[in-house]
UniProtKB/TrEMBL annotation:
InterPro entries: 6-Pfructokinase_euk, ATP_PFK, PFK_vert-type, Phosphofructokinase_CS, Phosphofructokinase_dom, PKF_sf. Mg(2+) binds at residue 143. Its EC number is 2.7.1.11. Residues 1-414 are annotated as: N-terminal catalytic PFK domain 1. Substrate binds at residues 188-190, 225, 232-234, 288, 316, 322-325. This is ATP-dependent 6-phosphofructokinase.
Length: 789
């Protein structure tokens, strides 16, 4: 999925950062109030294949453009609409993009356009833009669409000269429209564009694939069948690879890395071994562009015929096709597209005649701008490497995230024979602590399988630290975790009990089972629990072993990590429910919904869920509010409701304020909105913790747990002296999380300066509030970087 740098921080250093406030001085930051769009016209179009999330990008461009005072135009039907002109180019209003955030595909239409490929077609397009004084173009599409836009920009001056010579425009029009600025956003479900971590639509396509795989697994298990699934990806195997990793597929075929010669025998042997170990099903995933080493296509039918011929298994083929492009966009795609849309408008406002056409992109949690043609060139390099059969080079060019996915898949998918495994003679225990979070089971599966591959004996502890001191510890084998990736909750069982009062019993269990290392997967209780264990090392030598924590909590409130396993699934649950709640009011009179989310004292779910669901206001603990703020919010919403907007959404984090409860907010809005709108309230509750994990949480859990075990192996080797493991230094009790920005404090578990707090002004702008938006991190055009881990 989205590229991440995994970062090890010692528990003590994460805790120290958590307790030290860092203030970012106001005067070093740059705000966008001085960027004005007055007198400028921006046009937005979607081109090429559609992708879920394109509408969120269009909505963000329109609203941000209007917010800064520019005129914004829709260009319907992509480049075809630009060439044809007329009613295809229409001015957009704030209300015209209302209710399109949750719609899949592209509302303004997309079309392949042959005419735009000819100079004559581009001449007509230029004429249509000049007629409306449009000199800023925002193109949402794949690399072909963006290359076309760049060519259009390069030819702009000569096109204007030609129009002037033909008498179609006058001297003044040519002068006032002399510069064309272009910003691209990549909308493509294949994630085949170099330079951006994730393209708009990829995460939603993975959601569609995983929904189908989960459904197929139940029927395959009933009949002991093998299923061959064909997914999209003519030139890029990202969807196939990540979905294989997310569902624990037995075999995957991708264009970048064709199987070695003799793969037919290897695959059949693997499927046969899997059945002999008790598995009732096999899943094989094939990317539509998969080839063998000799350039022959590996089709789903070819794979099916092979399995039937060699093994006689009952085998079925499912081709997912355009299902992958359909459906509503995932929470991630809505946020990605909204952030990119706002960044695109800022890039257009700051563009000058010398600025190269850029593409706005996401690297980690940061929105960046990259030179469009550099990215296109690098994307073409991948294809060239594949054509020349330089497959290792093709994988390298795809970026470190792709490489990591591939190596993690290889590590987990094939069980070596016992004779091939190294014998480390170390015992590693895995446990879940705190509330259940979707993706915990994927993390446990990865930990167990990587641990076995590294030669360790793996032990599962039931019911967290409570089960630990009660001795609920047993060895867990490779086959025991089969099919765990798609299961929600915690199959090991989890409790919130802390170990502090039971240290003697825990130390005794560590001695009885000879536990040499601990992997704790959980939330804030896991974090505090490991701090308690590591602080007791001087009293209990049994606790002098490597300990690592992997953050898994829907609240996303662990110091030292930007994201936690489970928070993406919870976010999608909130977004889906908000969509349904809003839809429940369609056709009725104007209605406002007050919705309470989980998150403890952390406003992550409410804020990011609010951005994904198109909320008008979000109340969180980190941003104190008083009765005057509530009053201003009600008045703002009342004014909006007097226009054509019919539905309002207000999100409140469960602990945002002890006095302004959800009931209080509901009653206030009900009273103040009387005669304009009526109110309903919903408390989302535990449905945010349940359900099957999202593709992101499966992938994140899998990769982070695999890294954790590799860290344990290295630390065990370093700590093994005189026939025993002894690890009592600070750096042997760690937290493994996503790379974080500056972390500092608040008393309720969470660092004060979180990356997602910067999304709040963006959410307010898209809800029509005047606000201050810090753009210090924007505006830097970066050249092609070494792809992130």
């Amino acid at each position: 999925m989205f590229n991440f740098t995994l970062k090890i921080s010692t528990l003590f250093s994460a805790n120290a950062r958590f307790k030290n406030k860092s203030s970012s001085s106001q005067d070093t930051r740059k705000f966008f109030e001085n960027l004005s769009g007055t007198g400028k016209s921006i046009a937005v179009l979607t081109s090429g294949g559609d992708a879920q999330g394109m509408n969120a990008a269009v909505r963000a461009v329109v609203r941000m453009g209007i917010y800064v005072g520019a005129k914004v135009y829709f260009i319907h039907e992509g480049y075809q609409g630009m060439v044809d002109g007329g009613d295809n180019i229409k001015e957009a209003t704030w209300e015209s993009v209302s209710s399109m955030l949750q719609v899949g595909g592209t509302v303004i239409g997309s079309a392949r356009c042959k005419e735009f490929r000819s100079r004559e077609g581009r001449l007509r397009a230029a004429h249509n833009l000049v007629k409306r004084s449009i000199t800023n173009l925002c193109v949402i599409g794949g690399d072909g669409s963006l290359t076309g836009a760049n060519l259009f920009r390069e030819e702009w001056s000569s096109l204007l000269d030609e129009l002037r010579q033909q008498g179609l425009i006058d001297e003044e029009a040519a002068r006032s429209n002399s510069e064309l600025h272009i910003v691209g956003m990549v909308g493509s479900i294949d994630n085949d564009f170099c330079g951006t971590d994730m393209t708009i639509g990829t995460d939603s396509a993975l959601h569609r694939i995983i929904e189908v795989v989960d459904a197929i697994m139940t029927t395959a298990q009933s009949h002991q069948r093998t299923f061959v699934l064909e997914v999209m990806g003519r030139h890029c195997g990202y969807l196939a690879l990540v979905s294989a990793l997310a569902c624990g597929a037995d075999w995957v075929f991708i264009p970048e890395m064709p199987p070695e010669d003799g793969w037919e025998d290897s695959m059949c042997q693997k499927l046969s071994e899997s059945r002999s170990r008790g598995s009732r099903l096999n899943i094989i995933i094939v990317a539509e562009g998969a080839m063998d080493r000799h350039g022959r296509p590996v089709t789903s039918d070819r794979v099916k015929d092979l399995v039937v011929r060699c093994l006689g298994f009952d085998t079925r083929v499912t081709i997912l096709g355009h299902v992958q492009r359909g459906g509503t966009p995932s929470a991630f795609d809505r946020i990605l597209a909204s952030r990119m849309g706002v960044e695109a408008v800022l890039a257009l406002l700051e563009a000058s005649a010398t600025t190269p056409a850029c593409v706005v992109s996401l690297v980690g949690n940061q929105a960046v701008r990259l030179p469009l043609m550099e990215c296109v060139q690098m994307t073409q390099e991948v294809q060239k490497a594949m054509d020349e059969k330089k497959f290792d080079e093709a994988v390298r060019l795809r970026g470190r995230s792709f490489e990591n996915n591939l190596s993690t898949y290889r590590l987990l998918s094939y069980r070596k024979a016992d004779s091939e495994l190294p014998n480390s003679s170390f015992n590693v225990a895995v446990l879940n602590v705190g509330a259940p979070a979707a993706g915990m089971n994927a993390a446990v599966r990865a930990a167990v399988r990587v641990g076995i591959t590294e030669g360790h004996k793996m032990f599962a502890v039931s019911d967290g630290f409570e089960g630990f001191y009660k001795g609920q510890i047993k060895e867990i084998k490779w086959g025991d975790v089969g099919g765990w990736t798609g299961q929600g909750g915690s199959l090991l069982g989890t409790k919130r009990t802390l170990p502090g009062k039971h240290l003697d019993k825990i130390a005794e269990q560590m001695r009885i089972h000879n536990i040499n290392a601990l992997l704790v997967i959980g939330g804030f209780e896991a974090y505090v629990g490991l701090l308690e264990l590591s602080s007791a090392r001087d009293r209990h030598s049994e606790l002098c072993v490597p300990m690592v924590m992997v953050p898994a909590t829907v609240s996303n409130n662990i110091p030292g990590s930007d994201l936690s396993i489970g928070s993406d699934t919870a976010l999608n649950a909130i977004t889906d429910t908000c969509d349904r709640i809003k839809q429940s009011a369609s056709g009725t009179k104007r209605r406002v919904f007050i919705i309470e989310t989980m998150g403890g004292y952390c406003g992550y779910l409410a804020t990011v869920g609010g951005l994904a669901a198109g909320a008008d206001t979000v109340y969180i603990y980190e941003e104190p509010f008083d009765i005057r703020d509530l009053q201003a919010n009600v008045e703002h919403l009342t004014q909006k409701m007097k226009t054509s907007i019919q539905r309002g959404l207000v999100l409140r984090n469960e602990n945002s304020n002890e006095n302004f409860t959800t009931d209080f907010v509901y009653q206030l809005y009900t009273e103040e909105g009387r005669g304009v709108f009526d109110c309903r309230k919903n408390i989302l509750g535990h449905m945010q913790q349940g359900g099957a994990p999202s593709p992101f949480d499966r992938n994140f859990g899998t990769k982070v747990a695999a890294k954790a075990i590799q860290w344990i192996t290295r630390t065990l080797t370093d700590s093994y002296k005189g026939g025993r493991v002894f690890a009592n230094s600070e750096d042997t009790a760690c937290l493994l999380g996503m790379r974080q920005t500056s972390v500092s404090v608040q008393h309720h578990r969470i660092p004060k300066e979180q990356w997602w707090l910067k999304l709040r002004p963006l959410m307010k702008i898209l809800a029509k509030y005047k606000t201050s938006y810090d753009v210090s991190d924007s505006g830097q055009l970066e050249h092609h970087f070494e792809p992130h881990n």
